[in-house]
Amino acid sequence: MGNIVAIVGRPNVGKSTFFNRLIQRREAIVDSTSGVTRDRNYGKTDWNGREFSVIDTGGYVVGSDDIFEAEIDKQVELAIEEADVIIFVVDVTSGITPDDQGVAKLLRKSNKPVVIAVNKVDSNKNILDATEFYSLGLGEYYTISAINGSGSGDLLDAVVEAL
Ligand code: GDP
Ligand code: MG
């Protein structure tokens, strides 16, 4: 049984906000500027008595010729390789983007257990918008709000179960 969980997704979906909530420290850099978290960032947490390590990653973008973005993509791929379970964070307010499709492709290729976190569901108002994320072809999703913490319990139950 492994115990490494990687948080991946394109820039600005709320990965670092969720990571910070999980490790309850202000370790990762959270910024409204896309792609601020450049390096992988590790923390430890536990849920239902199960301890595990969490990796926050930078934002994945498809086919960039920017060398910094290309390096981030490489780090994301390494994090996926290293992880036992992956939390794939997407953003309900924007729907599926080409970068989300790129991440989904990587994850299907990895054959690792993936739990989709549809983030920014701050109220029930946009809960139905989340259904489109089924079409990523990665199964079940969980709606969360990394900002107010709602939904994270059910998500973490699924993560720990897949470890
Ligand atoms: P990252 O690039 O994926 O790490 O995203 P960040 O965690 O840096 O967040 C990007 C932006 O989205 C910031 O302005 C956050 O405050 C905002 N954000 C993150 N989670 C939520 C959420 O659950 N609801 C809303 N409304 N905004 C969020
Ligand atoms: Mg970040």
Automatic annotation (TrEMBL):
Residues 3-163 form the EngA-type G domain. GTP 1 binds at residues 9-16, 56-60, 119-122. Signal peptide: none annotated. Belongs to the TRAFAC class TrmE-Era-EngA-EngB-Septin-like GTPase superfamily. EngA (Der) GTPase family. Associates with the 50S ribosomal subunit. GTPase that plays an essential role in the late steps of ribosome biogenesis. This is GTPase Der. It comes from Psychroflexus salis. The chain holds residues 9 to 171 of 442 of the full protein.
